[in-house]
Amino acid sequence: MVTLYDGGVYLLNGSEILTEKEAEERAKAGKMPAVAGKGSYKEEAKKGTIAYSILEAHNTSGSMEKLKIRFDAMTSHDITYVGIIQTSKASGMEEFPIPYVLTNCHNTLCAVGGTINEDDHLFGLSACKKYGGIFVPPHIGVMHQYMREMMAGCGKMILGSDSHTRYGALGTMAVGEGGGELVKQLLKDTYDISYPGVIAVYLEGKPASYVGPQDIALAIIGAVYKNGYVKNKVMEFVGPGVSSMTTDYRNGVDVMTTETTCLTSVWRTDEDTKEYLTMHGRGGDFKELNPKEVAYYDGMVRVDLSTVKPMIALPFHPSNTYEIDQLNSNLEDILRQVEVEAEKIIDNPDIHYTLTDKIIDGKLCVEQGVIAGCAGGTYSNIMEAAHILKGRSCGYDQFALSVYPSSQAVFIDLVNKGVIADLMTAGATVRSAFCGPCFGAGDTPSNKGLSVRHTTRNFPNREGSKPGNGQIASVALMDARSIAATAANGGVLTSAEQFADNYQVPAYHFDGTVYENRVYQGFGKGCKEKELIYGPNIKDWPAMSQLADNILLKVCSRIMDPVTTTDELIPSGETSSYRSNPLGLAEFTLSRRDPGYVGRTKEVDKIEKARNAGICPTEAEPALKEIFEKIRTISGNENVKANETEIGSVVYALRPGDGSAREQAASCQRVIGGLANIALEYATKRYRSNVMNWGMLPFLMEGEPEFQIGDYIYVPGIRQILDGDMSKIPAYIIGDSVKEITLSIADMTPEEREIVKAGCLINYNRNKAKQ
After folding, report:
1. How many other CB atoms are there within 10 angstroms of residue 300's CB atom?
2. Spatial separation of the C-alpha atoms in residues 515 and 297, rounded to whole Å
3. Between residues 60 and 466, the one the model is more confident about
4. What angle, rounded to 10 degrees, do the helices at 379-389 and 408-416 form?
5. Domain-ending residue, one of 191, 209, 242
6. From CA 517, how far away is CA 387, in angstroms rounded?
7. Which of 10, 38, 57, 314 has the largest CB neighbor count within 10 A?
């Protein structure tokens, strides 16, 4: 079904695959095609990828080894754009220099958690009027569907403050990053990365009629996530199998590449891509993208589409994949295994997590089905689901089905084709465009409930689950076709294969009138005299000081889970209403994983704030007198002064940052005293970027941590270290005795080093403006 190649591969004429060894043997025989250029054969063949040509066209550094990228457009939703605009404004921004689309698909509900989210929407609209942006009102379209329909195009690059920013099926290399990276683009700076590895995803064959894009995506994720095969790399979809799928179908596969931890994705384009863009009024954005005659890839994921079966990703990760038939044949064993793993994740003895109790008469019964968002709410997915449900019933028992079309444009055509009536008659409820079911603000399952969803994620501490408060719910990911089959079977987990026929989805008719009538198109029309509209929930970022020469870190959380997601660092869902209030939101930091963290780090923050006010830390916290006495026993640190040593908190986690791009996962630590993280490795580049953009040090450490919560770690000369070699950083655990340990920091750009030394991106930009 899915095969991973060990080592690099050459792709000849888009169809012939050669391993490096096979290519070397053919080269010796003089039978490899020639490649132009002065570099080695492999170096020149690397330039044959689609990714290389797009990155080269957007790079401003003059070096393809160290890229400085300028994007064609950007997008943010209403959980992230307020902070981005506030940061940019504080840094001196006067206009949006490129098209910037603000969508309102996350904080869509207007009164959650005690604040009025519509205030954020008014702020966004006022910002578009002032700075020249594009504003998509609530319920009109989810972020990524609007960008597919109206902004993406072949050969473009788009940056978004959402991890699922993926428009590769339209020939666009789209990257999801934290808000700091968008701020840099708004200030006409660049996105700086080393040239990434490029992995070919070679598709062959054709999916069965009952197999949907989520099935393809889950099969790939299951094969590559745990081994890190595509981590921080570009996934380039090639091969004849691409053309066996419509562009709408490809979009559903593409958006899920985020769950592999890749950097971005891009697909070869064809006539169907052209038809899609032309239908949306943008035929001029089409150009044919294919690898050159010879293209070298750093690896290959080979997928025979004809062998993919309906899939399910069980709690608590999209990579926990099984064929539905495989699961149904081994329910007890597989579900028991999930229960065992869940006990480790939940870490609450008061919760007894069960899935096997949902086995009734040998069948798995679920309580809820959801088809929604950028992954599930597309036209073809809903058409296929409606076809299965037409003339059938979801039943009147516990199971319920909800469907969220991804945009009003999609919704309109579904209404015109009578499909919405078919769904509603079967018992499904149909909602407007909203991302809530993906991040825990919509269709929250009941306690101990199991929901099957065609959405993007099923992480722990999501979908309303609050283990710290005694509630746990489960989400499994499935394709819309199998969710509809499950609904038609009254909630009994069912593969779409049981309802297979030769149904062909009717052609989609796009009508953009709703966008013409409702979307504010302000790019290039900003008016500086316009005022931003602030609601009482919108607060400025608190001041942050620059990094001192020496730092003292108090360990305020120690997380030994294999991976710590951004949902655990800062919960999604009900906290969304505080996203525009940095200090208000920070009260929820690690609340579902380590409820005591906030109190601990705020105590540390009090000491640092006192230091900045001229009060010696040993006066603010007398217990530090002994700590500094021990520090002065370290060679070269005899004269260290407490009032010149920055004091902050540190979180240790094995692999933090899988999941969302939202910068709040880092900023929430920073605004209440966070100064560093220590990790075995960082789960994603975007989280590490967030850490640095908020002035925190992204330390690495090998081996088991020898410190506990409450211990202090002293790092001398950190500013000087940031100017030089960061591979071996001496640090000291200050406990009953002093113990030296070795930290490190992976490669940072010169700009990232200066941002951390400045204390955060805002300070860095203000410093630049003064020069």
Report:
1. 25
2. 40
3. 60
4. 40
5. 191
6. 31
7. 10
Q: How many domains does the chain have?
A: 4
Distance (Å, whole) CA 699 – CA 708 = 17
pLDDT of the residue at 93? 92
Element (H, E) at 692: helix 685-693
Pure H helices in 29-98: 41-46, 50-58, 81-90
Confidence of residue 748 (pLDDT cuts 50, 70, 90): very high
**Average pLDDT of the chain, as a whole number:** 92
Which of 343, 334, 299 lies closest to 313, judged by CA? 334
Let me know how many helices (H) and strands (E) the chain has, helices first: 29, 34
Q: With respect to residue 540, please indicate whether it lies within any of the assigned structural domains.
A: no
Lowest mean pLDDT among 116-130, 399-413, 452-466: 452-466
Angle, nearest 10°, between helix axes 213-224 and 247-254? 30
Output the CA–CA distances (angstroms, integers) from residue 145 to 72, 124, 408, in the order listed: 17, 19, 10
299 shares its domain with 328: no
Going from the C-alpha of 482 to that of each of 194, 244, 268, 334, 403, the distances in angstroms are 41, 20, 28, 19, 14
133 CB-near residues (< 8 Å, 6+ apart): 96, 99, 100, 101, 102, 124, 127, 520, 522, 523, 526
pLDDT on residue 588 = 87
Give tens-digit pLDDT for 607-626: 999 999 999 999 999 999 99
Q: Domain holding 124: CATH number? A: 3.30.499.10
CA–CA distance, 299 with 729 (Å, rounded to integer): 33
Q: Which tens digit of pLDDT belongs to each residue from 151-166?
A: 999 999 999 999 899 9
612 and 626 fall within a common domain? yes
Distance (Å, rounded) from C-alpha 315 to C-alpha 453? 12
- For the beta carbon of residue 227, count every other beta carbon within 10 angstroms: 10
Report the greatest alpha carbon distance in the chain.
82
CA-to-CA distance for 291 and 619, rounded, in angstroms?
65
Compute the C-alpha angle 112/118/120, nearest 5°.
100
At 47, list the tokens: 């330039």
Cα-based distances in Å from 174 to 59, 99, 231, 531, 587:
14, 14, 16, 31, 32
Give the residue numbers spanning the domain of 331: 311-507
> What's the pTM?
0.91
pLDDT at 730 over 60: yes
- CA-CA distance, 681 to 699, in Å (whole number)? 9
**Predicted confidence (pLDDT) at residue 296 exceeds the cutoff of 90:** yes
pLDDT range class, residue 344, cuts 50, 70, 90: confident
In a domain, 536, yes or no: no
Buried b (16+ CB within 10 A) or exposed e, 420-429: bebbeebbbe
